Amino acid sequence: MNTKVTFDPEVHPPKLYEGYKSTVGRAPHKPLVVVKKSLGELTGPLFKDFELGVLDHDLTRNAINEGEPIGERIVVQGKVTDEKGNPIRNTLVEIWQANSAGRYVHKVDQHDAPLDPNFLGTGRCITDKNGNYKFYTIKPGAYPWGNHPNAWRPSHIHLSLFGGSITSRLITQMYFPNDPLFGQDPMYMSVPPKGRELLVSKFDLSITEPNFALGYRFDIVLRVTPFENQ
Amino acid sequence: MNLKQTPSQTIGPYFAYGLTPEQYGYNFKSLATNLMVDPETSEGTIKISGKVFDAENNPISDAMIELWQNDGERKLFGRFGTGTDPENRFVFHTVKPKSVDGQAPYINVIIFMRGQLIHSYTRIYFSDEQQLNDKDSTLLAVPQERRNTLIAKWKGGHYEFNIRMQGPEETVFFDI
User: Rounded distance, CA B16 to CA A105, Å?
Assistant: First the structure.
């Protein structure tokens, strides 16, 4: 049996989405060639042996120079699983984001909002034995961009995940509940309706830390290619 | 239980300080770089470089390329952005993988960029492995006139592998 396990078109965006202008000159046009997977596709890099810095998961502290970063402290946590709900352990989760004013540290970001000398906006962690990850950070601000007149990106955090093989590789963005900017955002709207709510974190009082930070839960489901289908 | 996959979103233009920080001069340790082996100490080190072209044939300055190779003996991973080279090249230092089960040696390539809502996969094969390339089952599954888009050309000292997102010479991308 050779069940095709692929990126689910019911939830993933198409390669070409004209509302997001940059896809027009960059999305491949020709049909993908289906390849029989071998060792190279059924494996991927393992990061569990990497020495992460003790503050790598805490963006409220990992770039402090002279004080604390400005903005609303939040906890972002969730579970990484496959489609059957099995936890994906020891997998690397990397995040990057704008600061509370909606400005990225990246040198090409020219948005006229202040940088925060105490906030870099990047972090990483490894999922635990139950597939859980957890970050402390500052809630990112919305920011304008040039895609269309008066275009604004809703507040979001970028996430990068590996899973067990390169077929489960995922880069995504996590949004915040009830953002009024969703409807005009081509990134969010490029996702078919069934997938959109999967990109929105949920406010969760049970993970909110008293007198410290509001809690948002964002569970992540990776596509996992079963070995026995090869 | 059947959960829905988390949808992909673009890497966007601002990934560098998070995913390739040292390459771009940010004060954060890189977990992976373009040195998949140490060229000083590894025998048989090869250099692979190339550019990623858009529909207008302009080199893309904000793509991130990841390489993964596993020939059963060595598992090597590399990551590099196209924004620090003056010509927007990516450069990797690695060793050529071995042939597995009589198939031609290859390296997996994952391509991310602003303007891609979901990443693309391709493979690097090698121009000096013609005998194995000619009977490789994956290459044979690719229309003959497009096979050369997957083959890195030996340029005397290094391999060149350009990636074209569109156009008559669009690179073959795989559904894996």
Answer: 10
Structure-token match 């990112």, residue found = A140
Q: Which fold has domain B28-164?
A: Protocatechuate 3,4-Dioxygenase, subunit A (2.60.130)
Quick one: closest CA in B to A48, which residue? Answer: B31
- How does pLDDT run across B43-76, given as a tens digit for each residue? 899 999 999 999 999 999 999 999 999 999 999 9
CB B120 within 8 A of CB B93: no
The answer to whether the Cβ–Cβ distance between B17 and A122 falls below 8 Å is yes
- Asked if ipTM goes beyond 0.90, one says yes
Task: Render the burial of A19-52: b for 16+ CB within 10 Å, e for the rest.
Answer: ebebbebbbbeeebbebebbbbbbbbbebeeeeb
Superfamily for the A21-229 domain: Aromatic compound dioxygenase (2.60.130.10)
Q: Mutation test of the interface with chain A: which of B1, B8, B123, choosing the one with the most A Cβ atoms within 10 A?
A: B8
CA nearest to B52 within chain A: A26
Task: Compute the distance between CA of residue A99 and CA of residue A183 in angstroms, rounded to an integer.
Answer: 23
CB contact under 8 A, B5 and A222: yes
Question: Reduced to 3 states, what is the DSSP secondary structure of residue B131?
Answer: helix
pLDDT digits (tens, 9 = 90+) for A121-177: 999 999 999 999 999 999 999 999 999 999 999 999 999 999 989 999 999 999 999
Count how many pairs of residues, chain A against chain B, have C-beta atoms within 8 Å.
Answer: 224
**Residue spans per domain, chain B:** 28-164
